[in-house]
Amino acid sequence: MAERLRVLLVGGTSGVLGGGIRAELASRHQLVSFHRHPDPGESPGIEFAPGDVTDPSTFPTALRDIDAVVNLVWYRAPGPDSLFRRTVEGLRELARQAARQGIRRWVQISLPPAPPRLERSVPYLFRRRELEAALLTEPMDVVRIQPSAVFAPRDRLVQVMLQLMERHHRFPLWGDGEYHVSPIHTRDVAWLVGEALAGRLPPLTLAGGPDRYTYRQLVEMLFAVAGLPPRWVRLSPGLARRLVQALNAVGYHALYTYELDWLMSDLLGLPEPPHPGRSFVRLEEFLRSRPRAELGTPAPPSR
Ligand SMILES: NC(=O)c1ccc[n+]([C@@H]2O[C@H](COP(=O)([O-])OP(=O)(O)OC[C@H]3O[C@@H](n4cnc5c(N)ncnc54)[C@H](OP(=O)(O)O)[C@@H]3O)[C@@H](O)[C@H]2O)c1
Question: What atom in ligand 1 is closest to the CA of residue 36?
Answer without folding.
Answer: 41
